[in-house]
Amino acid sequence: MTALVVDDTAREVLLAGGPVAVDAFIREVLQFSLPSTLLINDVFSREILANSNNAGQVTFLFIDAFTREVLQWSLPASIHPDDVLRELVRTTAFTTTYLVVDDFTREVLYRTCNHLVNVTNPSPGPGGPTPPICGVIPKPANSAPASGGPAPGSCGIIPKPS
Amino acid sequence: MATVFIDGFDKYGPVSVNAFNASELTQGEWTVASSGGFLIKAGLSATGYSLYLPSPNGLMLSKTLPNNYSRLICGFRFSTDLSGTFEITFTDSNTTQCSVSVNKTTGLFTVWTGDFFSGTKIVTSTTSITANTTHYLEVDMTFSATGTYNVWLDGVSLLTGTGNLKTTSNTTANQLQFLTSGTNAPVMQIDDLYLFDTTTSFNNAALLTNPRIETQYPVSDSQTQFTNVGTIIGQSYNVTLSGNDPGANTLFLRRFQSSVAQTVNSISCVPQTTNATANFKAVIYSDSAGNPNTLLSSGTQVTGTTANATLTGALTTPQALTAGTFYWIGFIGDTDITLQNVDSTTTGQQAANTYSSGAPATAPTMSINHASWVLWGNCTGAATNWEAVDIDPQPGDISSIKSSTVGNEDLYNFPGLTTNPLNIYTMAVKANCKRSDSGPRTIDLRTKSGATDSGGSVTGQTPATSYVWQDSYFDTDPATGAAWTTTGVNSAISGPKVSS
Predict the structure, then answer these.
(1) Of the candidates B107, B129, B422, which has its C-beta nearest A113's C-beta?
(2) Helix (H, G, I), strand (E, B) or coil at A30
(3) Is A109 in the B-facing interface, judged by CB distances under 8 Å?
């Protein structure tokens, strides 16, 4: 979507007038005023957002199927709608809002083993729970391998000494 | 949604001693991460890294959740030295509803109304942990005056009952926080975090198994519709605050491989000192058997450095790079300037070189084992996108893709899981992304499995105008509606889509 930036003068006029009317005549006016690289249909085929931060208020300007008469009716008598639209186009900076992606990842939550938890040095204090063993036979006490590694089939769980 | 959030703490960069960077990176995913407080350490499980909360300063890691939840289930792997108390809290707009603490010195677990600083103790375990042991803690809390609590340690029930699990007028929580207490806070590591609610039949209860999180980055394209803004060759981050001065009248280089065919236009480094007259010229050399060889291109002179500001030297003739080929990139300089180092490794090489003579056509014999200076080449022209979004930690705009066209979708292939899991609980798809200005733009984080292309748990997310992580969760395989299989995950492709 195209962001439409309006200068203070045009903003005041347009905000006072509410939704801006654009009929075929004004389209011609605008087309004449627009840069040659910008097609009029690109402007009006979608809502144009005028994102103006006026005293903290974000206001929106929608240009679609309204009539020139609405604009004429909304404006002070001293201001001609064509002048407003010319000023609008003249002072408008068209910018495009991009979605920018810097990094993309997947994180997969899974379990790999039947045992409950891979605990290092579980050693619960007095009254602590027996380390969970799921589907494995705890190794007898006082027979830990010299390397200190887990008992075969214990999936890394070191049984609590009995 | 059933999975509310998971974090493997794997995407915040490699093992780090630079606390500022770790906090800054974490804040892209978490709402509050105490500035300068965190480090990245080796993982507490088989893959990736963990988040390290060093003593002695009290720290807070806070995540504002997408909704208000009447019940939350959280699990995480942890280790602590018990030099201080830490707690996990469930918070309603910054007021703690309830918490579970691990007491310093005793290692006992307590459930609190409110938090352990000022709350009311409900129950304390008779089971303790010892310092510097790794455990998996899971808690299930219902936020009401007569709420049910369950706490499991390593899959075994530790505490269960009912109590007052709220302090506000709401019976909900919308923040998850980890806190370590003020002075003499404990050293603590966290890894493999999940957070579930109970809104679906998947992931609506504590797992009570041995879960872990494996983080994957794209390895190739399946579909590219975004525009490649740029990519880098080299390393643009630092996990240490240290620097190194290659010296005046020096040629200094590091060796990097170009992952794809692209063109390098300029080369950057990060001086740590300010000097108005120092001169640099970028250079790139070919590689011959691991040594710099022929000068491929050199740059226009850049004069002046600013402390900790990136210095970029344009190459007079941009250099085409071949996929899979190694190159040596760096600078010639005329002044002693300390440069930021990536880490404590010593992969840099340097040689004396009279600056006024320009870059030598053939690299001289180089002195090896110099600092791994922060050096990278700024590239364009890649025909692929995956390499722009696969860098940990994320480099920012210099390696990114963009689109403003609604419906544009990139899809990437990912490596197979490193193991064949017994159960796959969920897959998170995450993008570090932003809007280029304040105009409206939303993103979907898509996964395509078989012929089914899904946006997961959250679609149409509006990124901020600075980079943050946006997440979407796939608790089931979109193609089957059933739990993921290893084959399903490995075959699925994922990527960002401009949803509006």
Answers:
(1) B422
(2) helix
(3) yes
